[in-house]
Amino acid sequence: MRRFVMPLLWPVITGILLAVVLLDQFPRLLGNPDSAAAPETVSPPAATATPTADAPTRAAPELREAAPMKRGAGPVSYSTAVAVAAPAVVNVYSSRVVQREQHPLMSDPFFRQFFGKDMPRRQRLLSSLGSGVIVSDEGYVLTNNHVIQGADQIQVALRDGRETLATLVGTDPDSDLAVLKIDLGKLPVIRLADSEKIAVGDVSLAIGNPFGVGQTVTMGIISATGRNHLGLSAYEDFIQTDAAINPGNSGGALVNAQGALVGINTAIFSRSGGSQGIGFAIPTNLAREILRQIITHGRVIRGWLGIEAQEITPNLAASFGLKAAQGVVISSVLPNGPGDKAGLQPGDVMTAIDGKPILDPRVAMADIAEIKPGTQLPVTIIRGGERRTVTIEVGERPIPNQGNPSG
Questions:
Q1: Lowest-confidence range among 60-69, 79-88, 338-347, 363-372?
Q2: 246: Cβ–Cβ under 8 A, 6 or more apart, which residues?
Q3: Predicted structure pTM score
Q4: 236 vs 102, 189, 294, 305, CA distance in Å?
Q5: By the 8 A CB rule, do 209 and 129 touch?
Q6: Which among 70, 291, 314, 334 counts the fewest CB atoms within 10 Å?
Q7: What is the pLDDT of residues 78-131, one digit of tens each?
Q8: Is residue 299 within a helix (H) or strand (E), and if so which, with residue range?
Q9: Which residues are catalytic, by number?
Q10: Which among 344, 345, 334, 328 has a CA at the least distance from the CA of 377?
């Protein structure tokens, strides 16, 4: 009997001993989480800055603490500013008559040959809507050129209900401004602010007639000044605002919180056709000068060199052997123009005007425009790698619709 039990006893004893060893090494096998010994972690010694004799000692910086914001200190209404400015903002309706063929088939050359010059035609009236601003007691009104361009008749409606036909005094397509005149008594006239003194963050109010719904006022701030390179007009120095400007606001007033005119609303940047918070206005200082010249001279007189130029790119600068992409390249010279008479040639690199380096072609163009025609103007050019100075007698810029160069 004993010899049969002994072979079975040794595996049992071995299994018990093995179980004891495993439970001793791995107590979590018992299912009791409290018995699990947390692993020991050795924390590295904390780094301490040991001052040395050469270490500099610095005083704590003086910070500018902002005063607690005084809530409720701002105005709760701009009704006073609106009451001052809005009566001087008018609605401008322009219309023109166009000839239209009687039937769409008349556009086919086969049918046109049977009628010749006696094709039946009918008249169609096209109209556009915009805004304007009364700026003088004599009845002069500033608006945008694109509002009245090509119009056969211009009608102005005042806020007080009066309506009258307007006379076109003159236009300036280069700045997109036009001057109208109305003959009415007791006209409300807006005050003009100095647009050089406006600042980003100033409150601005846009007043006009958007979508023909009637006079509307929107509020925002001046977002930027001196905006250019927008491709809206030849001479650009726009005020940017987020006051809502929509179709029909063109030619209307952009006023400050006191109701004084700071700009003439002229365009918006939009992908939908409506306001997206980026609108542009022509500053009053520019509008004031154009108004004066149109009234006194019948046109805007600007300096002109009779050249067409393009901006220098890094590749062009390298091809001309220039160290920096500074100046403009003359691409064409108008025959018998001021530049041609002074000896300028296509391919010349113009680097300075009257000693002032050309950093931006548009700024240089605006500087030339401000020079009085007849002035002897020294111009620095590079031709064939040689720097030289040429004196040009500034001419008067022709009206732009004659297809003349812009420089």
A1: 60-69
A2: 210, 211, 268, 274, 275
A3: 0.68
A4: 43, 26, 18, 19
A5: yes
A6: 70
A7: 999 999 999 999 999 988 765 555 555 555 665 555 555 555 555 555 566 889
A8: none
A9: 146, 176, 250
A10: 344
